[in-house]
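User: I'm curious whether this sequence folds into something compact or stays loose and floppy. Could you predict its structure so I can see for myself?
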Amino acid sequence: MEHIPAAAWLTEAANAADKQGPGNLLRVVLIVMIVGVGLTAWFLLRGYKRDD
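Assistant: Here's the prediction. I'll summarize afterward.
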């Protein structure tokens, strides 16, 4: 396994993203959004479970 500098790897990834279109970016955004909504719902709803 050869060592590839971070800048070269990032440039190669940016070039590959142009060829692939927005599919992978949208997939990542949707996954992050779903996880964020789940964590926000958990954070807001956990207070209703307490018996004070």
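Summary: The mean pLDDT is 79. The helical segments are 6-20, 23-45.
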